[in-house]
Amino acid sequence: MSVAEGSNPAVSPAWSLAYPEARVGVLRMTGVRNPESDPALDRLLDETAASLRARHVGATRPDLLARPELAAYAAHYRRFDKTYHVLLQLESVAFKDKPLRSRGVLVAAMFRAELETGLLTAGHDGDRLAGGLTADVVVAGDGYTGIGGREIQAAPGDMCIRDGGGIVSSVVYGPDDRTRLSEETGTAVFTTYAPAGIGRDLLTRQMELIAEGVRVAAPGSAVESMEIVPS
User: What are the boundaries of each domain within the chain?
Assistant: First the structure.
């Protein structure tokens, strides 16, 4: 499916000023299912983990950080005295033989794509989103409830995405609880943050990989839209 030069999410003036070269990819899928696990997807996850280990034999963290996409996220996280967690997860799977698993097939499909490309994605229940999405910048005082009910004071200056009800994710602190993926999710929206230095082709590849994983667990699911903004 071609990538639309779409209007969802909108991009705020603050985002355009603070992150003029950054993009967001938005993948919307219908007819999804979200059991805790799926045998066919588990096999794909195991194949992906084996491929990652073979690809990174003898590699070190500096080798991973030589990849432009991982370097871009690492630089963003350093601004907030944090380490890019997808880098740590990739090390665990590729270097330490940790299984590639996550609770819920939608998160597992997303996690697989993150480790393949290095790109950060948040998943949301499309029916719980309130109106359109806007790529924005966190300001002082911004907060939201994270997964599991933890109260998050978002980091001023960080990238975030908002809907009509507030922040639904930020780069440093992740997705919110209000729009979380659940067992009842039938429509899923995946938003991928792409800091400066990450091209459209890799961002498109990320969305394609997520869709591939979701369809393994839910063959009847469909891509409703796949968009990158700004165009």
Answer: 10-36+103-229
Q: Structure pTM?
A: 0.94
**What is the DSSP pairing of strand 159-163 with strand 143-145?**
unpaired
Q: What are phi and psi of 166, to 5 degrees?
A: 130, -165
Report the relative pairing of strands 134-137 and 10-11 from DSSP bridges: parallel
Domain 10-36+103-229 is in which class?
A: alpha beta
CA distance 180 to 200: 26
Quote the tokens at residue 20. Answer: 């003029």
Give, in order, the Cα–Cα distances in Å from 186 to each of 55, 126, 129: 35, 8, 13
pLDDT digits (tens, 9 = 90+) for 21-72: 999 999 999 999 999 999 999 999 999 999 999 999 999 999 999 999 999 9
